[in-house]
Design goal:
Chain lengths: ~575, ~55
Amino acid sequence: MTITNHPLPEAAFTELADGGGSPATMRRLGDAQRSKHLMLLHAIAEAAAGPGPGSAAFRVGYEQLARIRDTAPGAAAWLLGLPHLGGWVHDTLIHLDQGTAADFGHFACLVAAAAIRTGLPVDLDVPVQDGRVRLPGLGSLLVASEKSWVRLRSDGARVTAGDEFAAEARRMVPDDGTGAGAGVAGWSGTRAIRAAGCGPAWTVLLETGDPYLDRYTLPMRTAMPTGEVADWRERVSSAWQIVAGRHRWAAQPMADVISVIVPLTPRSDTDLVSATTPAAYGAIATSWPPDEVTLAETLVHEFQHVKLCGLLDLVPLTASGDQRVYAPWRQDPRPAGGLLQGIYAHLGIVRFWQAQQHAETDPDGLLRAQVLFARWRPTIGETVQTLRETGSLTPAGVRFAERLRAQQQQLMSAPVPARAAQVAAEVALDHRLTWQLRHVATDAADVAGLADAYRRGEPCPGGARTWIQQDVRKVDSGLRSRLLNLRYLEPARYRALRADGVLPLSQADRLLLERSSEAAVQAYRTRIADSADPQPDAWIGLALALHQLPPSPPRAALATRLAQVAEVHARLADRTDPLDLASWFT
Amino acid sequence: MIAQEKDIETAIPDLGDIPVNRLAELGSSALAHSIALYRERLRENGIPLSSFQARI
């Protein structure tokens, strides 16, 4: 028997590179994920040959999967495409590679879920955890005993788990809030959301219990009270109205592919974290979003990652490498693969805000849409260039990146109001300069040479050598940066905070936010000149204040060589005027 | 005459029509090679996580 690899037509590749994804292309990605999972299951099957109840349960499950696949291909396709299966398969492989104990038996639960969902007979031992048998994608059933394993049987219509549980298979369904599955003793359906809008409908699970989907940067929100579930249902439904109504290009493929939302537990009320992983294709994780527009943007953003993860499994676009570079949306230096993911996500984000500008009627909402469109639009082309310069792209990656750049060029022709463009440029500069002061190291000998030349009154001989080094300096400008962003993300909150006057801002920062630019320049200038210690946050403030004024030599120097200017200033160790020094660099 | 577009070569074997109980027959074939490549990637890079944090 011979096999061939999944075909990917050039047209499908191009479609994805352009940020889209037709139903046919998404089916291709989904089919490839199912093959990937089956391939990895085969690898696990070869390892699960030993004694023990877990291995035995896996083997029975694997046999039953073979039978299900022969008799009910749709049921097997559902199982092989389930993000829960993806999470478990990847964790199991990692355990096998690391020589640690793998949870083979959980596979029996997955197979049982597929059988029960489709009304197929099944008969196998399944593990009991915390008194429950998990049926991923469906729910869990209560086994009121101390047993660690229970025999789960179904004739297709009636399901039993030992002597402890019995129910009709057709009633063991997710809990979509309509009462389906309610009243079945011992059954707890996974929460589901049925969202309908003026476009395609979307059914998605709100997963709060599966340990193999608790795999993101923040913990899964478990034990969610009923009221909170209702809040999620309402917010997801509202966000879907926006996606389906105004962002049709994303809606249908998203409805076809995304089957699970994993709510995350944020560390603070002001954290908004979202995530995806190629180990769980079809799942999006997010903390509680502050409003439905933000959630709609998050869904579009994360769906871009999901699509790219699917493509990357088929076609490598970056080669491995250690180089880290600037990404305009991250605080840390990023590898080429991470940068590509960010660019692709931001293509979706830019398209989202482009359309959203025409939907917003509230002035604050409109400002947010305009600024976010203006903020992210230029970053795609700039970052594609950075990515190309790393030399880490494969030939397919180069073609992919150039398609992204072409998409960005089309987006650049759309007009942006001057006020939004100005705010966007300011926060982009703040982000870039903060990143540079944190992560751009300078050659000490070159800095010393520059300082000597300045002292001697010689012309600037050139720049110091620089390289990226994570956290080379500590920069404490978080509050100012957050306020600069709050101006358009939450204008009402920004106005309230400014009116309260309780924020621990420096006088220079207050002047900057008030756009008293000349006065802010003087305040930062004095602070830097008078301090014996380096003042990275004041240097950034000075650059931002100069940016509010007409072009000048110090403005140009600080926008392009801030780390070098600040290092030379620190080396001079006297009351050197920062503006004079900055001008000397140009 | 319109030239037919070539498919791009991919890294995942198409197992859509292969019965589960016949996977073992594929032995040291392309399947084993694909599995080895995937596991090597997993060992080298771990499972990447695309995580975005927006502070409000």
